[in-house]
Amino acid sequence: MIFTAKRALVTGGAQGIGLAIAEKLAAEGLQVIITDVNGPMAAEQAEHLSRKFRRSCASVKMDVSDREEVDAAAAFIRESHGPVDVLVNNAGICYPARALDEITEEEWLRVFRINVLGMVNCVNAFVGPMKEKQFGKIVNMASSSGFTGGISVSASYAVSKAGVMALTKNMAKQFGAFQINVNALSPGIIASAMTADLTYDMDTLALPRFGEVADVANLAAFLASDEASYLTGTTVDINGGLYMR
Fold first, then answer.
1. Active site residues
2. Of 166, 192, 220, 229, which sees the most CB atoms within 10 A?
3. pLDDT exceeds 60 at position 195
């Protein structure tokens, strides 16, 4: 792949899909900054990437739902490393499916603070330098549950991911004049720690296997690359045929 971008930030990048995306971008030659609510794990993974790819990767402890913490992290990153060209909004949480009347208000609020407002916080904190440079790539993590309403996940998660898709379109319209591409990717059943406790029927898949985190990472890298320069405001499915539209 071809990248004009030099520096990428991946939220929730200490494990699972986020870590796979961070590793793929580092392999493609970008300096990667991992942020995660688990600071020590993020630091460990950034050190691993630095050794593996012989480039300076970094980490910052960051809770995307805390606007002040996000703003402080963004200021630190700009001063220590420079502006971010690629922002991958991957951080998120998921609850297993349950009856709607069993979902507490606390769950709804927590999921939306992280999965939706967390993206808003990060974009507000990091998009400024992209506007100044007239260049940037924003990749948001949606989910097939945003289309289906959720199969094995809570309504709180499904609704939040539908919100991510709408947010992606809104951002694309706002930032297009600054040559900033904003897209989302929509994974289906991906083998990761987040999905380990969820139950799925393999017969629902056209491709009879769970997706791998590397599958999602490859798509995320494409959306961050120059090859996706005329793609914006869209949500790209990667679900093995779980949901076709």
1. 157
2. 220
3. no
